[in-house]
Amino acid sequence: MKVRLKEKNNEYEFLTKKDTRFLGVRIPNQKGFWDISIKDGIFESITKSLKHNGGILTPKLADIHVHLDKTGTAKRIGKRAGTLFEAIDLMEKDKVNWNENDIYNRASKALNIAWEQGTGFIRTHIDWTTPEVPIAWHVIKELRVEWRGKIEIQLASLCPLDMLAEEVKKIAKIVKADNAILGGFIFRNFRLREKLKLVFEAAKTNDIELDFHVDEGLDKQANGFDTVIDLVKKFNMKNRVLCSHCCSLSIRENSKVSTVLKMAAETGVGLTCLPTTNLWLQDNAIGKTPRYRGLAPIMEAKDEGIPIMIASDNCEDAFYPFGNYNQISNFSIAVLAAQLDERLWFDSISSIPVNWMGAENNINKGSEANFLWYQANSLDELINKTEYKFEIWQKGRFIK
Ligand SMILES: [Zn+2]
Question: Taking a C-beta distance cutoff of 8 angstroms, is the pair 107, 71 a contact?
Fold first, then answer.
């Protein structure tokens, strides 16, 4: 029995309190329009539709690279960083303020904002600069439990490679026990390969995944990515090692870059593109308009078959004073900065990072009906509009 038509212009209707039907919706990466029936919290049927303009229905979004420990500190830091290394210094100075309450409040606020904008999966890096477990690690572990069912949170250590290599046996055990990811910051380290090898050995021994900040600078000598790829092959860690930034690929010799990308695709390394921080910090000098934008060649990488993910990175901290955990906004920035065809890239903020995190969020018949609905009829409209109606649905029920 039809209970009520929810809204005249929106092509969806409530059939009973438990069952809903969306008519003539678009699903990113699928051609045409679709009628979708939901029954008892499950996608009951998904069929081609003759109707149009029913909005866009997408899976919950994923933000696979954020920094919940650093977030929300920009205002109290006050100063703006010109370069990545200035940002690292400013952030270090702010750490006198980092206690349980401070981190919990800032990270909670960020998670609320992310959730309200449709993010259902987050991987956060957490600064881990001395051998001791940082306070933020404990705090975000608590938040991981608190947010279960709304946002699935993964923790990744962010250790300077030199320290990590020395302490990796101990840190890797903790990371394993906490069901987390082992990560580090790599930039032209002395004896880089030797140190990274120790990290890979520990990851292999403990059966944990890796996630690196790699080559975040416009320096042709920054080629840590090449070593990571080589070690992924050597340690047989296909689809278990994610690299972020790789800015130097944007200025290295083309022929070398295409060889590296081929190797990365073959060995199964993932790549995360963080457009906001790169645009903000790369080629940044006072009084000079940037000429280089620091984005890894993600189009070429995707063409080779490398899984590409787009994420927020820093929000309101020393690395980037803006940012709002809105993955549609990050997607729009990536589309503009890298001149992407928005119709081909939406899975970089949805299914690719979700699958990389070992989860599933596909809109399939029989799957749990967790999804987002946008009142826009194409992705370009979604990017263009400054305001649109947006809904979150969980287990077939309207949440917000
Ligand atoms: Zn980062």
Answer: yes
- In this prediction, residue 255 has a pLDDT band, given cuts at 50, 70 and 90, of very high
Environment of ion ligand 1 (residues, CB < 5 A) = 313
347-361: pLDDT as tens digits: 999 999 999 999 988
Distance 26 CA to ligand 1 centre (A): 32
Q: Ligand 1 center to residue 89 CA distance, Å?
A: 15
Give residue 16's pLDDT.
Answer: 60
**61-356 fold:** TIM Barrel (3.20.20)
CATH architecture assigned to 12-59+362-398:
Roll (2.30)
pLDDT tens digits, residue range 192-242? 999 999 999 999 999 999 999 999 999 999 999 999 999 999 999 999 999
Q: How far is the CA of 174 from the centre of ligand 1 (A)?
A: 21
Tokens of residue 144, six digits: 């991981």
Phi-psi region of 90 (alpha: psi -120 to 50; beta: other; left: phi over 0): alpha
C-alpha 316 – ligand 1 centre gap (Å) = 13
- Give the C-alpha separation, 340 to 52, whole Å: 25
CA dist., res. 327 & res. 377, Å (int): 18
189 Cα–ligand 1 center, Å: 18
Domain range annotation of the chain? 12-59+362-398, 61-356
What is the pLDDT confidence band of residue 285, given thresholds at 50, 70 and 90?
A: confident
